[in-house]
Amino acid sequence: MSSFKEGEYVLIVHNDRKFLRKLIPKQSLNVKKEVLKFDEVIGKPEGVRIGSFEVYRPTLEDLILLGFERKTQIIYPKDAFYIAFKLGLNGEKRVLEFGTGSGALCAVFSQIAGEVWSYEAVEEFYKTAKKNLERFGIKGNVKLFNEDFGKAEIPQNYFDAVFVDVREPYPYLEKVHQSLKDGGSVGFLLPTANQVIKLLESINGLFGNIEVLEILQRYYKRVPERFRPEDQMVGHTAYLVFGRKLTSL
Are residue 87 and residue 121 in the same domain, yes or no? Predict the structure, then answer.
């Protein structure tokens, strides 16, 4: 049975609130008038209940939503995990992304793909992403670059998939096309409809099998006597555009 160790991060649930904390001896979590001492957690099995607190080993989603420092708007897990699915990633695939931001999508890619290359032109964002990945031990298969993708030397026909998260992706389409293997997958994240329209006008002849979608996520109250949707939900966060590399003969 796996037990919690000193220095590990844990997910603590108290009623409807969630906390990500590092188990440091003599420290504690105070919620209203209730206290969870971390010395009482160290050595206990996963999923333990101590008073009104539940303690679990955090998932990657927990780390991203509760632990990642943010200098930019992150790609929410509801989008990130679907992006990895649509790009067809697995442990044998190489994926490239540019527009690293705070590193949330990069972290998801690192858990699924075999090799991840990620480019961020803004030094402040690059340092934040690097810090987030290192803090939670997510870096073994990631090559993180503080470099403008447009100026970077990218190997051709090397990547199985590319994901683009920049405001103006249009100048980079040829370079993305060249970096992909034949039939490789590409994805874009765009906040506004006019950006999607311009992208659709720009990718003709480069990418096919185009799909445009958004993902909505709604949670429900867990009380049997008043089971209904939560009062708030994560609705539209961005448009997602997916396609495949085309090669004209």
Answer: yes
